[in-house]
Amino acid sequence: MRFVNNIKKFWKNQSNQSQQLIKDFPLLKDKNSNPLSIEYKVHLTAKEITSSQKIIDTIVSKIIENDSTKRNYAGKSNQQLEIYKKRVYKYESYCTQNVKLVPGKADRLDIYVTDIFLGKLPDQYTKNTLNYLQSTIVANFAYITGGPYKVFDSKTQSLIEKTETYDISLYIQFS
């Protein structure tokens, strides 16, 4: 019976958390019960950090392998893609939060995505990022860009499949 009660308690806690998200209540609040705001944010691509396509492809493969949603083409069917008429990438909704900023040598931050060294944060972001790392909450995300995509071709009136080289969009934000 104790096991059943523990399960009920767990389920109730999960339901409450879900209700907060559904009702769009912020889960993180400051001491005055105000929602946390974004103090500083950085958006850059992997190609701004490294010139090695091999490293980018390795990270992309690991993100694809570890992504639990597996929503190819953003979960759209071919019929929906024909109506949409814009490029939809196979892995555009695949992401990871496994993005780490690790202090390296003086005034340097190394970036690791899925535990693979990507490179160092560009100098123009380092000073502010180091400052905010010491005093705020950080949230990091990496999304796959590029790769295989489908697009509606108005000349042939059909979906065509093409591919581009992969890249990764990195978002680092401080609240």
Write the layout of secondary structure elements.
Blueprint (H helix, E strand, L loop, with lengths): L1 H21 L17 E6 L7 H14 L11 H7 L3 E2 L5 E2 L2 E5 L5 E5 L2 E5 L2 H11 L4 E16 L4 E17 L1
Antiparallel strand pairs: 1-8, 2-7, 3-7, 4-5, 5-6, 7-8
List key phrases describing it.
single chain, 175 residues, alpha+beta, 2 domains, five-stranded antiparallel beta sheet, three-stranded antiparallel beta sheet, 4 helices, 8 strands
Descriptive overview:
The structure is a single chain. The chain has 175 residues and is α+β, with helices and mostly antiparallel strands. The chain folds into two domains: 1-29; 37-174, no CATH class. The chain contains four helices and eight strands. It has helices at 2-22, 53-66, 78-84, 123-133, and strands spanning 40-45, 88-89, 95-96, 99-103, 109-113, 116-120, 138-153, 158-174. The strands form two sheets. Strands 1, 2, 3, 7 and 8 form a five-stranded antiparallel beta sheet that branches. The longest helix has 21 residues, at 2-22.
